[in-house]
Amino acid sequence: MKIAILLFDGITALDAIGAYDPLARLPDTEITFVSETGKPCRTGDGFLSLAPSAAISEVGSAEILLIPGGSTEGLRRCMGSEALRSSITRLDQTTIITASVCTGSLILGASGLLRERKATTNWRAKDYLARFGAEYTGERVTRAGKYWTSAGVSAGIDLGLALCGHIAGDEMAAAVELAMEYDPKPPFGTGNPRNAPAKRQKIVMEVLRG
Questions:
Q1: Helix, strand, or coil here: 30?
Q2: Cα torsion 81, 209, 15, 133: sign
Q3: Closest to 102 measured CA to CA, from 72, 62, 132, 57
Q4: Is the CB of residue 86 less than 8 Å from the CB of residue 21?
């Protein structure tokens, strides 16, 4: 299974790595990290550098294409790059699954791939999906044909496991989940905005990075 994962300046690291880790545990997967130029990319907070193996234009085909999300500035650059959008739509013609984590759905949307499809994203970006003709579901993972989208950051792990189940079967995916010891128990229970008071949402919007 050939998998391509996009990197870009401004990326949120866990968006890419959360989905990557379960998929990388499967036998017979070949994962290539790509960027628009083939050069290393820094995360949106500026602390971490991630190195791709190739420029996306150098990749002829992929069975799975995964687009992570990131900072507002990084997303704008990606959405505004005709060359990157063209590479994404070209690879999409070869995939059996095209997927996104968090605000990576906006890059898919800007590439014209989510029009008239159900999709999810980080709750703070939900209104932007409508600009690309997509219908926001609010689910952790949404599948619309071959297009799989997931909600904010940590939902990328859920997406990765769901994709493991789809391509390798539920028993194998469950074994991956066990190997990862993925048994989350959030200490504060407000990971969904429906469970978070307005004061806490304000901190997210006005104080936190990313």
A1: strand
A2: negative
A3: 72
A4: no
In this predicted model, what pLDDT tens digit does every residue of 137-166 receive, in sequence order?
999 999 999 999 999 999 999 999 999 999
| C-beta separation of 3 from 145 below 8 A | no
Sheet order of strands, 97-101 included: 54-55, 30-35, 2-6, 64-67, 97-101, 147-150, 141-144
176-194 pLDDT, tens digit per residue, is 999 999 999 999 888 888 7
What pTM was estimated for this model as a whole? 0.94
Residue 22 in tokens: 């379960």
**What is residue 131's three-state secondary structure?**
helix
How far are the Cα atoms of 5, 54, 139, 209 from residue 67, in angstroms, in the given order?
6, 15, 18, 20
Q: Give 33-98 as a DSSP string.
A: EEESSSS-EEBTTSS-EE--SEEGGG----SEEEE--B-HHHHHHHHH-HHHHHHHHHHHTT-SEE
- Calpha distance 167→178 (Å, rounded): 17
| Surface-to-core class of residue 206, CB atoms within 10 Å of its CB (0-12 exposed, 13-18 middle, 19+ buried) | exposed
Strand partners, 30: 2
Q: Which of 52, 24, 19, 8 is nearest to 152 (CA)?
A: 19
**Residues assigned a catalytic role:** 102
- Residues paired with 204 in a beta bridge: none
Cα 25 versus chain centre, distance: 18
Determine what percent of the chain falls in helix, strand and coil, rounding each to the nearest 5: 40, 20, 40
